[in-house]
Amino acid sequence: MDKQTAQKVLSHPKFQKMAAQKAVLGWLFSAVIFTVYVAFILFIGISPQVFATPVAPGSVTTWGIYVGLFVIVFSVVLTGVYVYIANGKFEQATREVVREVMEIEK
């Protein structure tokens, strides 16, 4: 694809709308993950004894292990959801715009 075609794709209204939606989704997911991490760190700082509480009496595993694992798994899952959406809906929109631009050029 040459520069002129690329510029037409980038300036296409459908592509710009898709890029804006993708940016909003990315920032939204980033804000959610950031909020979860900040809440986790704040809770550790404010009430560390809760994370040190064993899950069951006599157990070695504490709630902190499970909450920490949740934060990690949540981040991975949310990233996976973003990638799924970006590679599905957004990629399809990009292909449609490229197809439209290429047809106009012929």
Automatic annotation (TrEMBL):
The keyword Transmembrane helix applies. Keywords: Membrane, Transmembrane, Transmembrane helix. The chain crosses the membrane at residues 24-51, 63-85. The keyword Transmembrane applies. InterPro entries: DUF485, Inner_membrane_assoc. This is DUF485 domain-containing protein. It comes from Uruburuella testudinis.
